User: Which sequence fits this backbone?
């Protein structure tokens, strides 16, 4: 069982760190996932019999490390989900990407099409059937000339499938360590993104 790093906990919610390469919830791999890890923690800490309720109100891609917020009651889950829908809760991403970006900050707008068979997405022309608009802002925090890598802070305006990874990769700046869309560090266990919450 993974060591669980807890940032905050009360009667309604728990905020924890998700290490990279751990699924947010159970998937077909059968690997240990965050939902199960946190449930087991609550079960042991409070000596709870039977099933433990834990609401999954958002997800992070498996390769992404960052902060996850879980609801300990159904009422808290409903309220947190509403905050996310109303954009009262905002996620800020930090990522390491290949190369030096032309602009120190910019807004990118694309249309993404998800391929269910391969669980991937790609940029397509506007008007493509089933494509969804994807918008993000980024700001370069640092550029490492020797390694030709940039650290960027990203704000998502939309939450599309693999959005950050696809939009950066489509411009030749794939995230370092990305095994689906990346060109560098694919064999390394480096986390490709981190996420912070702002309220």
Assistant:
């Amino acid at each position: 069982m993974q060591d669980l790093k807890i940032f905050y906990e009360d009667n309604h919610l728990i905020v924890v760190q998700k290490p990279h390469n751990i699924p947010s919830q159970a998937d077909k791999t059968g690997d240990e996932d965050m939902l199960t890890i946190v449930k087991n923690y609550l079960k042991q800490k409070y000596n709870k019999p039977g099933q433990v309720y834990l609401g999954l109100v958002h997800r992070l891609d498996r390769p992404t490390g960052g902060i996850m917020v879980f609801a300990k009651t159904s009422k808290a889950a409903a309220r947190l989900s509403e905050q996310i829908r109303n954009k009262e809760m905002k996620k800020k991403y930090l990522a390491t990407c290949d190369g030096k970006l032309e602009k120190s900050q910019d807004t990118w707008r694309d249309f993404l099409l998800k391929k269910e068979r391969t669980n991937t997405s790609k940029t397509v022309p506007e008007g493509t059937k089933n494509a969804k608009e994807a918008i993000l802002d980024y700001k370069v925090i640092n550029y490492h000339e020797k390694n030709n890598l940039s650290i960027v802070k990203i704000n998502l305006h939309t939450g599309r499938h693999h959005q950050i990874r696809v939009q950066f990769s489509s411009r030749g700046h794939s995230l370092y360590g990305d095994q689906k869309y990346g060109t560098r560090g694919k064999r390394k266990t480096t986390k490709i993104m981190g996420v912070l919450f702002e309220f």
Summary: The helical segments are 34-45, 74-85, 163-169.
